[in-house]
Specification:
- By secondary structure, the chain is of the alpha+beta class.
- 46% of the residues lie in helices and 15% in strands.
- It has a domain of 152 residues: Sandwich (Jelly Rolls).
- Strands 1-7-2-5-8-9 form a 6-stranded antiparallel sheet. Strands 4-3-6 form a 3-stranded antiparallel sheet, with no helix packed on it.
- Helix 5 packs antiparallel against helix 6, helix 8 packs across helix 9 and helix 10 packs across helix 13.
- The radius of gyration is 19 Å and the shape is globular.
- The chain starts with 16 loop residues before the first helix and ends with a helix.
- About 12% of the residues have low confidence.
Length: 309
């Protein structure tokens, strides 16, 4: 199955064509990313849940406790805590905390940021990471990002995403440590649980895709890398990440294109080839579908963002 030629499957998070005319230019891409930020009182959770994003939690006025893969994890007031949320997790003790930031970051975006490689490896292998220092983030910043991610102005939306990436870069540079090493093998058949087996293989697939997304890449190649049947590899990838392997690879390529359009003077064809698109028509239709505008228009807007105001 050639991941350059296969058709994008329908995405339930994509808006319909009738909606797109009234949305901001990056609405399709932003909804596909499903980046989400909450600032609220933490709530006790009746049971564990999981999802494919990277979760960042910051309680601002009290400690909270999670049960993550059946291990108790205490998140200290003011500290940033980071983990891959495909590990089953449950907030069990909100304590006296009244105000907590909860970020859900798409894995393909997280892996595209220039973060400490060891930190990334720890997260994709199921560890929970916390900052050594507290008070690296304020509720004011979180509230502003919430507003900006919903702005009709594409440049403001992208600025918020860039600042969240920089926040995590500061986190990765200013000192952190693992507070939970995910060693427990889950054996329950509950549909809401992701087995350690599946998480292990998907982490290997993510690493391989991250190193090879700019090359012609097939599902068979990804499956061969982890020594799994292609259909089985596709199935566990979709179950853990809650999107298909094709959607994930395309998102990695679109992220790379956007960075190159913003930061280089390469021709659009060169940018497309560098990011792993090997068909001009496929590139233009995919970019338009995900970003909601042509590569030329995106470059003009991003360069205006850099030089204008």
């Amino acid at each position: 199955m050639d991941l350059n030629q296969t058709r994008l499957p329908p995405d339930p998070h994509m808006c319909s064509s009738t909606d797109s005319a009234t949305r901001s230019p990056l609405s399709l891409y932003s909804e596909y990313q499903r980046m989400d930020i909450e600032l609220r009182k933490p709530h006790f959770m009746e049971s564990s849940h999981w999802h494919g994003q990277v979760e960042v939690n910051v309680p601002f006025d009290g400690d909270v406790e999670y049960l993550i893969n059946n291990e108790v994890v205490q998140i200290k007031q003011g500290h940033i805590t980071l983990f891959w949320a495909c590990t089953p997790h449950q907030l069990t003790r909100p304590g006296n905390c009244q105000n907590m930031a909860i970020f859900n970051l798409p894995m393909h975006l997280f892996l595209s940021w220039p973060l400490d490689r060891q930190l990334i490896n720890h997260v994709t292998h199921g560890m929970v990471i916390k900052s050594l220092a507290a008070q690296q983030l304020s509720p004011f910043e979180v509230q502003r990002w919430q507003l900006e991610l919903n702005s009709p102005n594409e440049q403001i939306r992208q600025l918020a995403i860039d600042e969240i990436g920089l926040m995590l870069k500061r986190f990765s540079l200013s000192g952190w440590l693992p507070i939970l090493v995910n060693k427990t093998v889950r054996t329950r058949s509950n549909a809401h649980n992701v087995s350690r087996h599946a998480q292990f293989y998907v982490s290997q697939m993510l690493e391989f895709i991250g190193a090879n997304f700019d090359q012609p890449l097939t599902i068979e190649q990804v499956a061969e890398h982890v020594k799994l049947n292609p259909n089985y590899a596709m199935g566990i990838f979709q179950r853990v990440m809650q999107l298909t392997m094709k959607q994930y690879i395309t998102a990695m390529r679109v992220n790379h294109v956007r960075a190159l359009l913003s930061d280089t003077d390469k021709s659009i064809l060169d940018v497309a080839l560098t990011a792993g698109f090997h068909s001009s028509s496929s590139f233009y239709s995919t970019f338009n579908k995900y970003v909601g505008m042509s590569p030329q228009n995106y470059r003009k807007l991003s360069q205006f963002k850099t030089t204008g105001d």
